[in-house]
Amino acid sequence: MKRSEQFAEIREIADAICNYSATTEQKQRLEQLLDNNIDAQQFYYDYISMHMQLEAAVEQNMEFVYRRMTEEFVVRPKGDEQTIATITPTEQLPNTTTNSVSKSNKLRQMRSHVFIVLCLLIAILTALLTWQLFNQSTAPFNAQILQGHLSIVSQGNIADNNLFAGEYRVEQDAVIALPNDVRLHLTAHTVIKLFNGNELQLKRGLLKLVAVSKQKIIVHTPSFSVNANGDDLTIDLTQPEPILTTGANTLLLPSRWRPKHFWPFESHSDRVIDLANNAVGIAGKSTRRTKGLVGQGSYYFNNHSTDRIDLGSGGGTVPASGSFAVSDGVTLEVLLAPEYSGELGDIDQIFSKDTGDEKLRMVLGFQHNSRKQDLMPDIDVNESLEFGLYILGQGYHRLKLPLDGQQGRPTLAQLKDGKMHHVVASYDVSTGLKALYIDGQLLASYQYPPGSKMLTGGPGNATIGNTQGHKRWQEKSYAGVIDEVAFYDFALPKFVVQQHWQHTQQGKNYFGLPANAEPLPVQLTLLLPAQTTLALAPITGLPKKIMAP
Question: If you classify domain 142-254 with CATH, what class do you get?
Answer without folding.
Answer: mainly beta
